[in-house]
């Protein structure tokens, strides 16, 4: 919805209750047509708490499982500070997006990039969202396979829940577990054509994430009381240049943990009072950063140098506490179930963007059953293959985090500020934007180099 001039803020807030957002050229938000449009017209706007809930759900995903490994690489003090710094930079990048969207009266990330850089900019952000979300969905499937059937790391096999209960059988193996979950659980959930149909599963997923965190923190505190935990390493182990470069491999994981930019406009469009959006962002990021800090602190405290890339896989050992095995299973099941329920939300956004990129002039995806089914089945197949051939979530975090995620989270918002199409950026904004781009490009370039070097060295050693 566009107008020749920007209405006063008070008028904008008042009219938002009955605002209908229709942007046929912005596939980052669902198109509203037919009967859906009538229901939207009756919608009086989302509350502050509802918006915080939705944005927090977007943020908290599989990234939380890799953060304890980040702290292990950096040490407790630099690791926790890095989590806080990434959260602060994320808040600023989202502020850049919102401010420029207000100035141009734009209702999606795609239209924002299109306004700043034309159709190629819009296509680029769509591609990055697709790559990032497919990578995240592969991570979800990998974690579910790790939790249910088990995983191996450093020559040590960590049994999954089914293996621990019933032993090693073909039906407790990774291939069968992932295949069954894909067909019996993911396929039905991703078949919904409206994201609103998933609101109850989304609410349940947040509750399951909280269950995981409460149990993990409780176990750590109990072990501290009984003296079962030693002093954690506070700083990184640096021996040579290679060890320094390896520290940068945590950057893509940190970026992936906070990425939520592709849902910011959708949440803002439904918010009853648009002036509250900055508060929504700050509250959501503060909440998620708190969860991340607690998970990282207690996860590394509990497992120390044995912390795995996917900390859920650590919950298969004897914790030395009463009912340890029951709590282990509860932790793993609660978060695996959380990821199962978040999967369709991430898939929905990816599918809408993929359809908008490939078929920009076609009728709405919800009205074309063949196109809907073809895209859904094809992408599910790609994700399934990725989950079976990529053994570690750290590998996929490095790829998506160092490429698509860092572009969506930092490089694109900073580039929009530097372009300053609407002449609203301050000198401080531009300096911070340059810092974001330089930090993002250099740190992720070093991370990619370090990962490639480590992979080549590992292959030479094996041969």
Automatic annotation (TrEMBL):
InterPro entries: AA_transpt_TM (IPR013057). It is found in: Membrane. One of its GO terms (cellular component) is organelle membrane. It holds the Pfam family Aa_trans. It is a multi-pass membrane protein. GO terms for molecular function: L-amino acid transmembrane transporter activity. This is Amino acid transporter transmembrane domain-containing protein. It comes from the Eukaryota. Residues 46-449 form the Amino acid transporter transmembrane domain. Residues 1-21 are annotated as: Disordered. Residues 11-21 have a biased composition (Basic and acidic residues). The chain crosses the membrane at residues 123-148, 168-192, 204-229, 241-264, 285-304, 333-350, 370-390, 396-419, 431-456. Its main location: membrane.
């Amino acid at each position: 919805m566009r107008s020749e001039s920007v209405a006063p803020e008070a008028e904008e807030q008042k009219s938002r209750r009955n605002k209908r957002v229709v942007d046929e050229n912005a596939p980052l938000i669902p198109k509203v047509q037919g009967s859906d449009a009538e229901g939207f017209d009756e919608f009086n706007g989302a509350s502050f708490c509802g918006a915080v809930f939705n944005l927090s759900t977007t943020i908290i995903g599989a990234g939380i499982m890799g953060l304890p490994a980040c702290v292990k690489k950096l040490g407790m003090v630099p690791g926790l500070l890095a989590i806080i710094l990434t959260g602060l930079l994320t808040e600023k990048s989202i502020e850049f997006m919102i401010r420029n969207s207000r100035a141009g009266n734009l209702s999606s990330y795609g239209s924002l990039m299109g306004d700043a850089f034309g159709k190629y900019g819009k296509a680029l952000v769509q591609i990055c969202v697709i790559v990032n979300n497919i990578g995240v969905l592969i991570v979800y499937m990998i974690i579910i396979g790790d939790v249910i059937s088990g995983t191996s790391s450093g020559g040590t096999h960590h049994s999954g829940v089914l293996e621990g209960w019933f032993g090693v059988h073909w039906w407790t193996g990774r291939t069968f577990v992932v295949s069954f979950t894909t067909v019996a659980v993911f396929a039905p959930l991703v078949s919904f054509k409206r994201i609103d149909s998933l609101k109850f599963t989304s609410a349940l997923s947040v509750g399951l994430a909280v269950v995981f965190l409460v149990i993990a923190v409780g176990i750590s505190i109990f072990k501290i009381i009984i003296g079962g935990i030693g002093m954690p390493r506070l700083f990184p182990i640096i021996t040579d240049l290679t060890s320094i470069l390896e520290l940068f491999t945590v950057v893509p994981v940190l970026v992936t943990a906070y990425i939520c930019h592709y849902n910011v406009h959708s949440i803002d469009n439904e918010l009853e009072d648009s002036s509250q959006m900055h508060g929504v962002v700050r509250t959501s990021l503060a909440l998620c950063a708190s969860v991340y800090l607690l998970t990282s602190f207690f996860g590394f405290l509990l497992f120390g140098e044995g912390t795995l890339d996917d900390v859920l896989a650590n919950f298969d050992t004897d914790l030395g506490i009463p009912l340890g095995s029951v709590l282990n299973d509860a932790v793993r099941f609660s978060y695996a179930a959380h990821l199962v329920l978040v999967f369709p939300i991430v898939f929905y956004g990816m599918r809408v963007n993929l359809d908008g990129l490939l078929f920009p002039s076609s009728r709405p995806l919800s009205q074309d059953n063949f196109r809907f089914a073809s895209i859904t089945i094809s992408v599910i197949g790609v994700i399934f293959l990725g989950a079976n051939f990529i053994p570690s979530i750290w590998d996929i975090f490095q790829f998506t985090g160092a490429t698509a995620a860092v572009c969506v989270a930092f490089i694109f918002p900073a580039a929009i500020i530097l372009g300053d199409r609407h002449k609203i950026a301050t000198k401080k904004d531009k300096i911070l934007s340059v810092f974001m781009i330089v930090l993002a490009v250099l740190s992720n370039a070093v991370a990619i180099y370090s990962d490639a070097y480590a992979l080549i060295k590992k292959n030479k050693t094996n041969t």
